[in-house]
Design a protein that fits this description.
homodimer, about 750 residues, alpha/beta, Aminopeptidase, Glucose Oxidase, domain 1, Transcription Elongation Factor S-II, Chain A, 3 domains, 7-stranded mixed sheet, 23 helices, globular
Chain lengths: ~750, ~750
């Protein structure tokens, strides 16, 4: 245990700070949004009671138990954990059960990586135990290092270093006149979700893909390496899935439907989301002999990592032999689902989830999030015993199979899709949790609610709310004094748009359920992600050793669930949504203009011969191809729709303000069922059944993971990606799709406002 | 020889390209600025003849001869080189002589650097010979690795890593709560002139300073290391002077006066420009054991170099013992001066110089500049034989003693200060030269002349002028499409303001002689600077192996000298000067505003407690001290002076345009002596006799090397540095000084315009 208390200015970090009344929890506090005076007072009281229940000791014990052995999908301890979570849920008085699905989960059969020459080397592909770290030696249960859903393959080819292996890296290779056709590429982890790297490599004709962890990104460049420090040592390997998840998430054999026993499954040969080429992850210890022997051009500055030699791009003279083969088996996954029925609106569901499966021991990923979720469930059980009656149904889920492809959440949500479309109010997700600042992503209709809740949760390290502390961080980290002023003037901490990378994906992107993802971070840092070293020893030495942010996560996520479940009127904020989407629309219009100007400029340079003139004749340089200047796009439909959205949001806000008058008397007496029903529809209206171009599973029109980023979000994805990919006709078409979507949204908000106006009368 | 010809699009690089007529050299070309039609035609003819004379083979031979042995100040081969240059000058028919000065030049007596523990290590402090590189083995003549003018000292202390050791690095140390008081600091080379590092370290209480070359900056991170590549290997050390040259340049014993035999010399104890603490340069091979064993906070991201471990700041547990002692002897230096008397204005001098001394063999620094200068001298000798008669006197100088402290140029110019103030038209400098693009710095009154000359000089690698190629580079390298457009719209390539770092310093900064510094670069790169590996083998493998840019330097510098020496009217452009200074004034006003806003913002953060709130309680963080909000400064006198300057520049430009009409008939018949006399005064008027605050030797009020940058320029230095150092009263005072200076300048330009108007009538 190396937690060091604050040594600054004698400030003592009170671990009992949660018992101090916060300024916002005062008698003069205004009613909570969507609550009458009476229900607001009661809610504040219940939420305060809730926050006092979770203990860091419990969270520590859950973590130690859940991460005690490797518990990947298909392992004995994965099932054991699910059953233990179930028993805990039940012991706290919750109605819980396990839902099982059968999913395709390949495991390593053959893994071989040889450097044939000049100086031969055979990659070790092993993570050795570390003295002092007890679970690192559980070798018989550890899943070997591999990338799940890589196709099988046996290839021998020259090697090319492609930096992060994202599309713009290949543009730079083009400028250098270097092709990866017929080559094995070696890419470093980072800058994209890992599945993008083999996908883009294959698009460019590569026959194999090695992904390694450069010490620049999460190794010794960043900090001392494990076990002396938190960062990746030379043997650490990042396992991980390389399914083409931007096409669809979940079991690759059952796109769009639950992988229940009778479900129709694709044949392996018909699955489109496997990689096209074999891919394998390695440590930087294994990568060094390969990279060190490459010749060819010196890698561009931004491509160079922290290994102690000059990075070259290749190809030549390095020749590589790579063999990947998997056991392509189906495995059971175990979602643990607990349900608290709503007292007033049982058909309105607030869902909360975190996965429980890991690549190995996963004390951080996901157990640091699973454990607080369990403690929330225990606390809610306590509240129920004390007489708390949530208006809405609450569902707590510990998902299995997140790591391979968001399998547990996706199969469950696909199985229950019709019910969810009808009943789901919101989904609150968490995953690996760390020490530091609250990071909240999600639907912008939830932005105000999330800010409100965060204002009530105490920060465990500083005497202020987690909201105030996050705001202080945003001020100090803003790049310029002007930006600092803007942050200071803002009344809220912006919620970040969600891409993918955790279990909210099916809820938000596929079903259109308003979603949020909560977690703490910014004071952690490390390089054990998806390695055997992500374990209890590491977590309790280097991440949140006292689990104080585990408790804070339980408090903020639990309070968010309660705030949504107990409200008279579901607290959605369409002004926040409308303003945010307006910003996205400005972004994509600017993107189109910039793209156009850039092509015009680049063509001028080609006409003048500037690029060739400025290049060094002793180095190969290939200027970009001339491109046709793009047409101007018609953004008018989008702007008109934004106007409609803005008007409806204002109308709803006006009605919302009306019913909040006089202590929210109208909320206390009126019938809100009709309004709430419309509110539940509002996020659903942001989907379009045809989905995004070439990926119909992704139905949300405002947020999606990028087709070429994997995790990273693309807002207004249909329009934005069409522009990025220079598909101008598609961009024009997608402007229409998004405009229709926003018009539909405006209609729903208008009808919610109309219902709310009746309540206010 | 590894020069690779262009492989792009079959373009053949013609080594004979200088014989091709360039577009600008056509019958329809307008008159050269400052020339009548007749004199312009003659001048174009002579300049063309001049450009055809220099050969790459001669430049190669001079280089090989001059760099054949180590030739630092005080060495036998330094004198030998001077005498050989003299004999060459004479053999080309020039009136040449050697001027000798006696200067203080300390050489190493004791150098010791020990890591006492935890794991002891004794620094090697040697650069071994490299197989295949013949001159690297001349060990008996090589000056050992050291920093000249370090004080003697023997210190034992803990070590602190201070990044580049510049003022803002110490601000970051303050935030980490780390003091260097009583410690030895280790700083990496870069981001400032080296002498700044011990100066700032001593200001913060350090007792010793180690400077090392991190492989991030000029070693394997940047490219393959010598002898496989151009970059610094683990043994390479950067020697160099650490005199506090921002206070004054030249012999430290004779500030402001020539170090002639009878000159009054300071006692060593009274010299203020030695370092305050011992300082020593080392290789990264020697630095690694020291840095690797440091503990304490992990270095901030921008501080981390490319050695393969986690950079820590210290202190602890590393303990260092360091001994530095020098032989504090006087040595003779040998300036070789050739003079071509002017036919019409013998009392108007155009001066051209490059140093000949090196730290070791110095094939690049300075011989790659010295050799073209010699070839220019030969070519001018040829032209004289062909009947060319320059109107003005031309002086060619091969300076000695530049490396230790700009000794040769400074002592010569201080000795001849009165004559130079009266007669000097301009000084054209060069130094180490490389392959690539023309970089021109200097007085902005010379900007148009330098652009004009560069338009006439062919680029040896591409079929265009060096001006066109530089412009193509500026377009392609501009960061944004908007900036690219701005570069494209510009009719000139801006001349960069000069700081220090070569022999123009005394001319420009001390005497107020309009100066320019010319050189090629951007296609070189390497890490042999001031090491034994800067030699003929390295230069002919990795820099300008065919000396084609050596010839281009001779062409552009020689043509610049001729253009100035032959003009009817000295071609100065005060519009370019006025516009540029207006930009500097905008900069300093913005700097004051930004500085004010920044203090206001930082105080708000202190009031709110944001910095503490945002900090990690497990890491020490000390917030900045509260600062008084600065007063608003009165920029009105500066703006009024800029108006006056702008009006006078316009008036002069109008008169200039008038006399250029009708083929410049007025120039051909009128007497221009009075105008030229005023023009010569114009740069002198930019000095103030009291100099800059606390450094009276630096008299120029527009350009100076920064007190805390050493080489890097500070424009309007009196104002800018006062603001940077938060001396608000001084800033207000310096605004007055600069305003007076610019008003004086406006008066001179007005009187030049008045004289020119008479000619035009």
């Amino acid at each position: 245990m190396q937690f060091k208390p604050s040594i600054m200015f004698g400030l003592l970090v009170s671990l009992l700070i949660s018992q101090l009344p916060l300024q916002t929890v005062s008698a003069q506090a205004p009613n909570l949004a969507g609550y009458s005076q009476q229900s607001s007072t009661a809610e504040r009281d219940w939420e305060q009671k809730f926050r006092e229940i979770p203990t860091t000791e419990n969270i520590r014990q859950y973590n130690q138990r859940l991460s005690a052995r490797p518990h990947n999908v298909g392992s004995p301890y994965d099932k054991d954990n699910a059953e233990w979570i179930l028993s805990q849920f039940k012991s706290w008085g919750l109605d819980a059960q396990i839902e099982t699905f059968d999913v395709l989960f390949p495991t390593p059969k053959t893994r071989k990586l040889e450097l044939l020459g000049p100086k031969p080397y055979t990659a070790k592909l092993v993570e050795p135990p570390v003295p002092g770290d007890p679970t690192s030696s559980q070798q018989s249960e550890q899943l070997p290092t591999y990338n799940a859903y890589s196709v099988d393959g046996d290839v021998t080819a020259p090697l090319v270093y492609v930096n992060y292996g994202i599309p713009k890296d290949y543009e730079q290779l083009d400028r250098m006149g270097i092709s990866v056709r017929g080559a094995i590429v070696i890419a470093r982890y980072g800058q994209s979700w890992r599945g993008i790297k083999p996908k883009v490599a294959a698009e460019h004709g590569a026959v194999g893909c090695i992904i390694y962890s450069d010490p620049r990104d999460d190794g010794y460049f960043e900090g001392d390496v494990f076990p002396q420090g938190a960062y990746r040592n030379s043997n650490g390997v990042q396992r991980g899935s390389v399914l083409d998840m931007p096409v669809y998430a979940g079991d690759p054999l059952t796109p769009g439907i639950g992988s229940t026993p009778g479900a129709k499954r694709l044949a392996l040969k018909d699955v489109k989301v496997f990689t096209k080429i074999p891919v394998m992850p390695i440590s930087y210890g294994d990568a060094q002999p390969f990279l060190e022997q490459l010749t060819g051009p010196v890698a561009p500055e931004g491509w160079r990592g922290a290994l102690p030699f000059t990075y070259h791009v290749g190809p030549g003279p390095v020749k590589v032999h790579m063999v990947v083969a998997s056991n392509w088996d189906q495995k059971p996954i175990y979602d643990v689902i607990a349900r608290i029925p709503g007292s007033q609106y049982p058909d309105e569901w607030v869902i909360r989830g975190n996965h429980h499966d890991a690549w190995v021991n996963g004390s951080q990923d996901p157990v640091s999030g699973t454990s607080p979720l369990m403690e929330e469930a225990r606390a809610l059980g306590e509240l129920l015993k004390q007489g708390w009656k949530p208006k809405r149904t609450i569902i707590y889920a510990a998902w299995d199979g997140e790591e391979p492809g968001l399998l547990g959440s996706t199969e469950w949500a696909e199985t229950h899709a019709d019910e969810l479309r009808q009943h789901a109010v919101a989904y609150i997700n968490s995953d690996a949790n760390s020490r530091g600042f609250l990071f909240a992503g999600g639907s912008h209709s939830l932005q105000t609610m999330l800010n409100d809740v965060a204002r009530d949760v105490p920060d465990p390290e500083r005497q202020m709310s987690i909201w105030q502390r996050r705001r202080a961080r945003d001020i100090t980290q803003a790049a310029t004094d002007d930006e600092k002023e803007k942050v200071r003037d803002r009344k809220y901490v912006p919620v970040q748009a969600l891409g993918s990378g955790s279990d909210y994906t099916v809820f938000l992107d596929h079903l259109g359920v308003a979603s949020a993802n909560l977690g703490f971070g910014g004071e952690d840092g490390g390089g054990i992600y998806h390695s055997i070293y992500d374990d209890f020893y590491w977590y309790t030495h280097f991440d949140d050793p006292q689990f104080i942010y585990g408790r804070a996560l339980a408090q903020v996520a639990g309070n968010s669930v309660m705030r949504l479940a107990d409200a008279d009127l579901i607290p959605l904020d369409f002004m926040a949504f409308s303003d945010t989407v307006k910003g996205y629309a400005d972004d994509v219009e600017k993107l189109a203009t910039d793209e156009r100007n850039h092509i015009v400029e680049e063509n001028k340079e080609l006409d003048e011969g500037d690029q060739i003139a400025a290049s060094d004749p002793t180095k190969k340089y290939v200027p970009p191809a001339r491109e046709a200047v793009p047409p101007y796009l018609n953004f008018a439909p989008l702007k008109n729709a934004l106007d409609a959205l803005s008007h409806s949001a204002e109308r709803y806000q006006h009605a919302f303000n009306q019913v909040a008058q006089n202590g929210g008397a109208a909320l206390a007496k009126g019938s809100l069922a009709a309004v709430n029903a419309k509110l539940i529809e509002s996020e659903r209206a942001l989907t379009a059944v045809q989905g995004l171009p070439n990926r119909p599973w992704f139905e949300h029109q405002i947020y999606a993971p990028g087709f070429y980023t994997g995790y990273g979000v693309k807002t207004l994805p249909g329009i934005r990606e069409a522009i990025e990919q220079k598909k101008w006709q598609e961009a024009d078409r997608e402007i229409g799709v998004v405009a229709n979507t926003l018009n539909n949204e405006a209609t729903i908000i208008d009808s919610a406002a109309e219902e709310l106006e009746k309540v206010g009368k």
